[in-house]
Description:
By secondary structure, the protein is α/β, with parallel strands linked by helices. It folds into two domains: 2-126 and 227-288, D-Maltodextrin-Binding Protein, domain 2, CATH 3.40.190; 129-223, Periplasmic binding protein-like II (D-Maltodextrin-Binding Protein, domain 2), CATH 3.40.190.10. Helices cover 41% and strands 21% of the residues. It contains nine helices and 17 strands. The protein has helices at residues 2-33, 59-75, 92-97, 157-168, 181-189, 200-209, 237-253, 255-264, 281-288, and strands at 35-40, 43-44, 48-50, 56-57, 81-86, 103-104, 118-120, 125-127, 129-134, 149-153, 174-178, 195-199, 216-218, 226-228, 231-233, 267-268, 273-274. The strands form five sheets. It has a five-stranded mixed β-sheet. Helix 2 (59-75) packs across helix 7 (237-253). The chain is globular and about 60 Å long. The chain starts with a helix and ends in an 8-residue tail after the last helix. Mean pLDDT is 91; it is low at 1-21.
Amino acid sequence: MSKLLILLSVTAMTVLAVSAAKAGPTLDNIKSNKAITIGYREASIPFSYLGADQKPIGFSMDLCAHVVDRLKADLGIADLQVNLTPVNSSNRIPLIQNGTIDIECGGTSSSKKRLEQVSFSVSTFASQPSWLTLASSGLKTPEDLKGKTVAVTQGSNAVGIAQGISQKDGLGLNIAQGKDHAESFLLLTSGRAAAFMEDDILLAGLKAQSEKSDDLAFLKSNYSITYYGLMFSKDDPEFKKTVDDVLSKLMASGEFTKIYDKWFTTAIPPKNINLNFAMSEALKERVAHPSDVVDY
């Protein structure tokens, strides 16, 4: 009998250990607290930004709402609390790493360097870095920026990209870093910077929301594609599996495309402006074949 009890005890402990391992730290934390903390951006149009009521809305927020619904079902917590925490380009990764937020639902691009610190879902967007400038400046191409001051946002991939372009092409750029996209945009529109580098869609969003949209223009450029995803803790395969499964099923059902069209090809709040940003061929490929692979 004692041997049987020992065997049963060992078996039970093994089952509990396997169950705990399967759940993973993020899911364990969410289940224990009966709450999930979502990081959102305040001005990353149309991914995650503040609406007219100062509450976060956007493409990534809608995708994360589906993740929350899945967690409610999987964890059996119908009243799962959703806590919202604003993040910016500088603190979003540290807040993931220290557990302050469970998932970032913003407009963040993946890269091999970032994957050393955090994990990303399968790609939810494909973008290209670009330069936004004043139409009156007479600038046409990146080469025209030689020796000028340009703006980037602190903590953005654009910082390294702009530095690399400056060095590779011998432009000698003076790179000014805004604390967020709004400040970088102000550096441009106030004339303190000749151009603002960021992913094309984020610049398109800022341009569309500007009261002087016609005063802004893009420089002709053709840089490498970057892929966005929802961001969460590194080395947590079970949470990643859950998030990826939610997104992959949305893509397979056609719901992902509907959500995309809602934010990129129709009028969006608060000013009811249409970004007219059709889904790129690169993103269509990722929707057909979900992947989190990045090239650099």
